[in-house]
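Attaching the record inline, Q. Sequence:
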Amino acid sequence: MKKIEVAVAGIGNCASSLIQGIEYYKRSGHREFAGLMHPDIGGWRPSDIEIVAAFDIDSRKVGKPVEQAIFAKPNCTMVFQRGFTASGVIVRMGPILDGVAPHMSDYPDDEAFRPADAEPVDVAKVLRSSGAEVLICYLPVGSEKAVRHYAQACLDAGVAVVNCIPVFIASDPVWAGKFRDAGLPIIGDDIKSQVGATIVHRMLTRLFGDRGYALDRTYQLNTGGNTDFLNMKALDRLHSKKTSKTESVQSQLDERLDNRNIHIGPSDYVPWQGDNKVAFIRMEGRGFGNAPIELELRMSVQDSPNSAGVVIDAVRCAKLALERGLAGPLEAVSAYYMKSPPRQMRDSVARDRCNDFIRGTVAVDEMEVNETFAAE
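Structure, as predicted:
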């Protein structure tokens, strides 16, 4: 039976949820579709995804089978699938570069990061030998050099990319051009959750506008206890994440808010929360006759499974693009699944266009958009 052969860079909580999910839906025999936006994409189901290569730099993960490494500390996401078929895939040592912030060695509770005592592999060579078709980038926020290293390796090896973090590759015209020239699709940047703080904030922002209300001020404050939140305590690594989340919400406004009136981004690391993310959203505005409105929302979600359901779609869309010979950023898919796509859209429009892409009715339009993006 044919498979979508996938490589994963970064075996953290998000990778753990994704790999658990692949096995979970495989064992469900396609009878249980809860949590899936698209049980079937172009004939491909979640169970058709197969991990063929994995990269990390943590001594607790490198050298282990990937189905064991996903449960190694400091991973703390919920475990919903325990039984696994042996994959035969060993986690390989990737290049460190800027893939880890210095303060991560001070991780509490004796779970501090230590790099593996191994030489980094040639990523492009491993990708070629594994037969990988798509690479999922799950590196930590702020890993600018490391992400570009993997992106270049994918170009060299002929592998498509799903970029789940806010290092701007698909939305950067130079890198977009490289993937287009190489004949490879890329989906990015910075994965949305299925029902997460950003998508909810975007929808509420658009609701204000669609119902004639002026939004004057808004914030989104998030706390969590996983390595993502700990990593972003380094403010120099947080910049791209704040930019990605803020612009994602700004894009839904008819008129941008002044920077003083919008604050969106991770707020603090609370160790005991683990992979539980708590988001606080506040919106202040005016309606008919300048009558005031205030909205406050608190949501609590398991952070990593919340994004894995989106990645499982994005991977299958990347496979469709490979089958159809599409290259460069996939605009509709990126707009629906990512916070910082090459071109922002209202979520309702992005959903319709993404579904059109899946049905195969916008392939020509996708190429036209890529040509326009290249010209810009």
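Residues 363-376 have pLDDT under 50 and may be disordered. The longest strand covers residues 214-224.

More tomorrow.
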